[in-house]
Amino acid sequence: PHPLPPPHPQSPPHTPSPSRSPAPSPHSPKASPPMSSPRPHPDAPPQPPPPRRRDRYSFLYVGFTLGIIVVTFLGSLSGSRACLEASRILHGRLLRCVLQCSTFVFDATPLAALLNRFGTDTQSVDMEMPGALIQCLQTLVVIASVLFVQVLIHPEMMLSAVL
């Protein structure tokens, strides 16, 4: 075995020229991106919750809101229809009673008083009944909600009330 000859003393060592950079080899390792730390920096602002959880709560909120809107609309619609039906029934009964009266009632009572009576009774049913009906239904819903929460939190108290 022959040893390799020493480099020639007069030839300068090979250095790449500054104007041309060597082409990267396809087998050379690529620079990896800097690794992030597993824990955030103490001065960093808090991170928002994951979007899935936030979206689920948003959908629940929107669903409950739409449900309340639909229930309120249907309740108002049915209450208005009930009051209109009550007004129609009241008007029919008043008219039937007035038409069945004897002529003595018409001689003793002025016609304006009879018309005024029809108008005020019908107006009170049309104007005051919807508000009273809605307030009554809201009170019933609040009472039912309180009882429901009471049963969930303290069922033993409700058992003692029943027994």
How would you describe this structure in keywords?
mainly alpha; 66% helix; elongated
Cα-atom radius of gyration = 44 Å
Largest sheet composition: none
SS-based class = mainly alpha
Low-pLDDT runs of 5+ residues are: none
**Gross morphology:** elongated
Mean pLDDT: 75
Count of helix runs:
4
Number of strands: 0
Q: β content, as a range?
A: under 5%
H-E order: HHHH
* Spatial separation of the terminal alpha carbons: 110 Å
Helix proportion:
55-70%
Describe the structure.
With 163 residues, the chain is mainly α. It has a domain at 54-162. It is built from 4 helices and no strands. Helix 3 (111-153) crosses helix 4. It is elongated and about 150 Å long. The N and C termini lie far apart (110 Å). The mean pLDDT is 75. It comes from Eutreptiella gymnastica. Residues 57-163 form the ABC transmembrane type-1 domain. InterPro entries: ABC1_TM_dom, ABC1_TM_sf, ABC_transporter_C-like.
Topology:
Elements: H1 51-100, H2 103-108, H3 111-153, H4 155-162
Biased composition (Pro residues): 1-50
Protein name: ABC transmembrane type-1 domain-containing protein
InterPro entries: ABC1_TM_dom (IPR011527), ABC1_TM_sf (IPR036640), ABC_transporter_C-like (IPR050173)
Compose a concise summary of this entry.
With 163 residues, the protein is mainly α.
